[in-house]
């Protein structure tokens, strides 16, 4: 087994990110004045490329849970959904040059909703980061074998393995999950997924980007991996 003390550098080919801010309870009055809500969202998010054609009021199947405000930012690269029970911001392909803008947009989405309803609070913040990457100087199968030593027998030739680690409460984090698997996007590449949920009562929104970045690096380090400088 290779020494995990020497971190392996990641050559990232693709990254995706999902953010959620959950309310303590469903806010059924959130869409009472849709025009006012849209005004706050538009004023805060126009700097990120939001146009009138990028705004939709979605009714879904007609249920309260399906109803939401849908917004597209950065020329459709980022999708924002404001729902009765949570706010979602997703980016299925996040290039390095968009990371700073994505982070700023997330914070302004929260600010826009809070400016519309100053009495609103958040219960949790959740972030899911997915990375598809090449391992510098290492085979992904050999790397993953560090975590999965014994594959089930009698099922055919083993072609790969993966590992998922679950963690409970730690400081201001309520839970976290770290996944290492074979990438379905990058040939002979690694897929790493880091999911963490923070207590919004202990982490203010503006401090969340630093907390998320710190935990991502800590999680990768625990796997013997290192982000490119």
Task: Describe the protein in words.
The chain is of the alpha+beta class. The protein folds into two domains: 107 residues; 96 residues. 22% of the residues lie in helices and 33% in strands. It is built from four helices and ten strands. Strands 1, 2, 3, 4, 5, 6, 7, 8, 9 and 10 form a ten-stranded mixed beta sheet that branches. Strand 3 and strand 4 form a beta hairpin. Helix 1 packs antiparallel against helix 2. The protein is elongated and about 60 Å long. The two termini are 26 Å apart.
The main β sheet shows up as: 10 strands, mixed
Which structural class should the secondary elements be placed in? alpha+beta
| Percentage of β-strand residues | 25-35%
Low-confidence blocks of residues? none
State the order of secondary-structure elements, H for helix, E for strand: EHEEEEHEHEEEHE
Distance between the termini: 26 Å
Count of domains: 2
């Amino acid at each position: 087994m290779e020494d995990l003390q020497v971190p392996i550098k990641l050559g990232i080919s693709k990254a995706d990110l999902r953010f959620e801010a959950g309310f303590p309870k469903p806010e059924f009055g959130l869409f009472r004045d849709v025009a006012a809500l849209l005004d706050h969202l538009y004023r805060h998010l126009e700097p990120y490329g939001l146009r009138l054609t990028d705004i939709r009021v979605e009714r879904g199947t007609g249920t309260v849970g399906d109803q939401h405000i849908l917004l597209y930012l950065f020329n459709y690269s980022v999708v924002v959904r404001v729902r009765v029970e949570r706010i979602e911001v997703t980016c299925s392909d996040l290039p390095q040059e968009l990371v700073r803008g994505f982070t700023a947009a997330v914070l302004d989405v929260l600010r826009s909703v809070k400016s519309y309803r100053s009495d609103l609070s958040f219960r949790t913040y959740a972030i899911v980061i997915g990375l598809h990457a090449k391992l510098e100087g290492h085979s992904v199968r050999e790397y993953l074998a560090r975590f999965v030593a014994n594959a089930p027998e009698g099922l055919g030739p083993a072609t790969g393995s993966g590992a998922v680690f679950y963690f409970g409460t730690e400081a201001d984090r309520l839970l976290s999950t770290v996944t290492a698997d074979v990438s379905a996007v990058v040939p002979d590449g690694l897929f790493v997924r880091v999911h963490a949920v923070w207590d919004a009562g202990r982490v203010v929104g503006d401090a969340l980007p630093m907390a998320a970045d710190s935990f991502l690096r800590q999680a990768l380090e625990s796997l013997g991996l290192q982000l490119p400088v």
